Amino acid sequence: MKLQVTSIFILMLSTSYAHEFRLRNNCPFPVWPGLLGNPGKETPLNGGFQLNLWETKVFHVGYGWGGRIWPRRDCDGNGHCLSGDCGNKIQCDGTGNPPASLAEFTLDGWGNQDYYDVSLVDGYNLPIKINPIPGTFRKVSDSYFDCNSAGCYRDLNEICPNELAIWHNGWKIACKSACLAFNTDQYCCRGAYGTPQTCKSSNWPYNYPAIFKQACPDAYSYAYDDTTSTFTCHGNPETGYEIVFCP
């Protein structure tokens, strides 16, 4: 009986600390979100599904969840997508293939604080925005990064340099990061360039990350772009998040 009571208590605790997520598609075409939990964390909704124009999908994750969500576009009936592909599967069971815009979350950290950001470190394919859901959070400071919207709202494909672009039928459909395109230690912030002090524009042959940063100042443009890209929020009692494609 004692084991049964303990199990019920754990179930109630995990349920009461569920975060609501809302995925909304504002693009003028279907989007196939990909989802992946961090190591040891669940992957919601079997990792992927189709989200039609103006459609919203709601799901919940447990206390302490962490993971990433990204848009895939132009997927066919076999599950192959022209950007953000998951190895020809609609339901991703691993990481998607860059380039793709990423929404990243680490929930319920020290002091019950959430961390979230939009990252272009792996490149870009669609505009994306993260909104804390009103009524589910509390601000603890006047900081710009406290419970505000994070995202990249511009179509970076329009300004993507040709050497970074992914093309399809004469159109740019995604934009690689410099790391993905050139695979050098400088752009990938590794080896001798693997610290915030050495991974910087003065060591890059060309400042490609600045193209992303100028267009989307609230999004990560390279690995150590933390100070102007990481947002935090405290729950009331637990924060919910809306992720909008083509906001």
From TrEMBL:
Domain of life of the native organism: Eukaryota
InterPro entries with a match to the protein in the record: Osmotin/thaumatin-like_sf, Thaumatin
Keywords recorded for this protein, A-Z: Disulfide bond, Signal
Record keyword Signal present: yes
Signal peptide span: 1-18
Disulphide bridges, residue numbers: 27-246, 75-81, 86-92, 147-233, 152-216, 160-175, 179-188, 189-199
Pfam families referenced in this protein's UniProt entry, alphabetically: Thaumatin (PF00314)
Gene3D superfamilies noted in UniProt: Thaumatin
Protein name: Thaumatin-like protein
Source organism of the structure: Chironomus riparius
Source lineage: Eukaryota, Metazoa, Ecdysozoa, Arthropoda, Hexapoda
